[in-house]
Design brief:
The protein is mainly beta. The protein contains one helix and ten strands, in the order βββββββαβββ. It has one helix at 94-97, and strands at 9-15, 31-35, 40-47, 60-66, 72-77, 79-82, 87-92, 104-112, 118-122, 125-130. The longest helix has 4 residues, at 94-97. The chain is globular and about 45 Å long. It starts with 8 loop residues before the first strand and ends with a strand.
Length: 131
């Protein structure tokens, strides 16, 4: 008997509401591993610069990923799981990674409101995937 546990792949992000970075530090960048053979669920939590939960009511979280040549390879809308606590998830499927060779990809998350205004979250992260 070999026990296995499911672990949430949660990442905390800071929303750039004021127009300048107050919490972005490169040392806190987190690498996320995704795999081609499964549906990878990435959980995110957005906080404001005061470390309080950012409400996602009326906002759409967007996930974009770029390859090593800065070419957009994945773009998804996030699915909000708890709007009041700033939580949402993104599913990266096998089809998303089908034509991408194994490499480090960079991704970013931004929020879009009803007037199509974009609010950046920090920071630029990387993720890698295995075959």
């Amino acid at each position: 008997l070999i026990p296995r546990y499911l672990v949430n792949n949660k990442t905390t992000l800071i929303s750039n509401e004021a127009g300048f970075a107050t919490e972005y530090r490169p040392v806190y960048q987190k690498n996320i591993s995704v795999y081609k053979v499964i549906v990878n669920t990435l959980d995110f939590e957005i906080l404001n610069p005061d470390q309080k939960a950012q409400t996602l009511t009326g906002l759409t979280p967007k996930f974009v990923a770029f390859d090593e040549n800065n070419t957009l390879v994945i773009e998804h809308d996030g699915t909000i799981t708890n709007a009041n606590k700033g939580k949402f998830k993104v599913e990266v499927t096998e089809n998303d990674l089908l034509n991408i060779e194994q490499q480090y990809l960079s991704y970013n998350i931004y929020l879009v409101d009803s007037s199509n205004t974009k609010t950046l979250t920090y920071a630029l992260f990387c993720f890698s995937f295995g075959a």
